[in-house]
Design a protein that fits this description.
The chain has 64 residues and is an all-alpha fold. It is built from two helices and no strands. It is elongated, with a radius of gyration of 15 Å. Pfam families: HIG_1_N (PF04588).
């Protein structure tokens, strides 16, 4: 299970965080809606939390 989490799920979670971060940067550079920027920032924080939880689960599973 640890291998599955660290090899497949965690990279997907990190890529999702990076994608939302890039979307937010592009929106900001284009002078897009501040409301959209705020939504993307909230989504990024949520995805970061999920990625950290997955990483901690992988570390915990490796120790078992």
């Amino acid at each position: 299970m640890a291998s599955f989490l660290s090899s497949f799920i965690l990279p997907i979670a990190v890529a999702a965080v990076a994608l939302v971060l890039l979307l937010g940067l592009v929106n900001m550079m284009k002078g897009g809606s501040p409301n959209t920027s705020q939504k993307l920032m909230r989504l990024r924080v949520l995805l970061q939390f999920v990625a950290i939880v997955i990483a901690m689960l992988a570390v915990w599973a490796m120790g078992r």
